[in-house]
Amino acid sequence: MRPAIPLLLSVLLAPSVLAVASAPALAAPPDRPPNVVLIVADDLGYGDLGCYGAKGFRTPNLDRLAADGMRFDAFYVSEPVCSASRTSILTGCYAVRLGIHGALGPKAEHGIHPDEVTIAEVLKPLGYSTAAFGKWHLGHHLEFLPLRHGFDEYFGLPYSNDMWPQHPTAGKDFPPLPLIEGEKVIAHMPDQTKLTGSYAERAVRVIERNVERPFFLYVPHSMPHVPLHASEAYRGKSSSGLYGDVIQEIDASVGRILEALARNGLRERTLVLFTSDNGPWLSYGEHAGSAGPLREGKGTVWEGGVRVPCIARWPGKVPAGSTCREPAMTIDLLPTIAALAGAELPRRAIDGKDIGPILRGEPGAKSPHEALFFYFQQGELQGLRSGRWKLILPHKYRTLGGKPGGKGGQPAVYEQRDAGVELYDLEADPSETRDVAAASPEVVRRLEALAERARDDLGDALTKRKGKGVRPAGKRAGR
Ligand code: MG
Question: Could you confirm whether 137 is annotated as catalytic?
Answer without folding.
Answer: yes
